[in-house]
Amino acid sequence: xxxxxxxxxxxxxxARLEPEGPTLTRRMSDLEGLFAxxxxxxxxxxxxxxxxxxxxxxxxPEVDRELPQSITTIExxxxxxxxxxxxxxxxxxxxxEIYLGLHGAGGLLMYDGxxxxxxxxxxxxxxxxxxxxxxxxxxxxxxxxxxLAVYPGGAxxxxxxVLEHGMGARAYRTASGHELRPWS
Length: 184
Ligand code: PA5
Ligand code: NI
Description:
- The chain has two helices and 15 strands.
- The chain has helices at 38-46, 160-165, and strands spanning 9-11, 16-18, 23-27, 51-57, 69-74, 78-79, 82-83, 97-103, 106-111, 116-121, 126-129, 134-139, 145-150, 169-174, 177-182.
- The N and C termini lie far apart (45 Å).
- 5-phosphoarabinonic acid binds at residues 55, 70, 72, 86-89, 97, 135, 137, 149, 151, 157.
């Protein structure tokens, strides 16, 4: 059955939702096969396997017709020069999603299998993910980057799609900031 109406307190400063649902922690070892530089990835796993990002969910269930939310916080860092990022996924049934930037500086990389798009994400930016676009978030700054996601409960997470098709581009640290390079 659907959940009853309830209030969620959204602590913008702390980037937290209350009441809390499950929190997911992704360490470097969870990002196998995603960074272009496999040796740099292996070295980072061996060197303490750092937390790359956390996802804190609201208690709204991930089932069809519900509208759950979550806050993702990506730590700053690079692996082989590539900026720390989420795994990235496609929604199997191609539903849309919105992200709202909360803290820090980031990017929203999207790929529809043919072309990629990049949205610079700052506090207050709403990034729109249209149906059919795989999406990955990147921390482009030197502090944690947080954003709120709101998505259809039945959207699902197809991580295999990204392993198979890639994301069209990769985001790297440069002397003056960051740049996108073609998929490799
Ligand atoms: O629903 C979303 O798209 C986000 O909440 C992501 O799941 C979150 O940012 C973590 O990314 P990923 O699921 O690709 O590991
Ligand atoms: Ni999504």
